[in-house]
Amino acid sequence: MLTKFRLMFLSAIILLILILSIFFYQPRWLLKIIVKVAPGVYYFSETTDKIVAVTIDDGPNTITTPKILETLSKNDTKATFFIISERLDKNEEIVENIINNGHEIGNHLVKDEKSIFLSKEEFEDKFLTADKSLNQFLLYESSKVT
């Protein structure tokens, strides 16, 4: 027979697995609730098409990004590269290759940090700072697009 401690421990493990499953698998029903709570945030698009969005995080990287670009090109696949703006120095050519090959770039702030722990003001400041750095690669300034 399970002791009270073992039962509580087992319950905690099951709850943890459930929470992690929801976090990693992001069930559509949960996202629909989140959209109602935060309508200004874009989470997903309803579609019947069988499509995959390829995203590359934490770039550019002098070693891996060119290899990823080569693989994407061989497979006629486009992706969105989320760029950390402090990594732009001496990597401008890589970002130009990303854009010239028809890929999109996204703003991953100034450095790789957990944005959930930033205040609204800190997040906005870091986002706009990175935005200014990324605008040099765009045909238009993203902060002026409404």
Automatic annotation (TrEMBL):
Keywords: Membrane, Transmembrane, Transmembrane helix. Gene3D superfamilies: Glycoside hydrolase/deacetylase. The keyword Flavoprotein does not apply. The chain crosses the membrane at residues 7-25. This is Peptidoglycan N-acetylglucosamine deacetylase. The keyword Isomerase does not apply. It comes from Crocosphaera watsonii WH 0401. GO terms for biological process: carbohydrate metabolic process. GO terms for molecular function: hydrolase activity, acting on carbon-nitrogen (but not peptide) bonds. Residues 50-146 form the NodB homology domain. Pfam families: Polysacc_deac_1.
